Amino acid sequence: MESFSKKRPTFDQFKVWFMDEVQQCTKNKYDNSFLPWSGLGSEQIREKIIESFMQLLENRFGFRPVIEERLCAMDGAIESVVIRIYHVFSTMFLVDHINKKMYGNRGKELN
Q: 44, 48, 43: which is closest to 25 by C-alpha?
């Protein structure tokens, strides 16, 4: 099994992916993640960015972070949104990794 740290993206890589989605959804290049999140456009545009990014994560890792709050309405910098998503993603990624180690071996023992 590949190590946990080699499979999980770094925060910087995660932020690059998010900024790529921002560019794709807004058709504008933003190099500064400290710009205001609300400055990217309407809540609908920001919701589109989040949905697109969550879909990317689901395609790459097989799950999407579950976040209760409406990130499209969040006040703060773009980086704040990325941090919030990354925190939840990292927690879920760790739990998934632990489950695979614990139950992956158990499945082999049962067969």
A: 48
* Residue 43, token pair as written in the block: 């809540």
Is 28 within the bounds of a domain?
yes
Q: What is the DSSP letter of 36?
A: B
Domain membership of residue 3 (yes or no) is no
Instruction: Answer with the residue of higher pLDDT: 100 or 22.
Output: 22
Euclidean distance between CA atoms 22 and 78, whole angstroms: 10
What is the extent of the structural domain holding 30?
Answer: 9-110
Number of domains in the chain: 1
pLDDT tens-digit map of 56-83: 999 999 888 999 889 999 999 999 999 9
Flag whether 75 is in a domain.
Answer: yes
DSSP H or E stretch at residue 94: helix 78-110
Q: Which amino acid is at 23?
A: Q
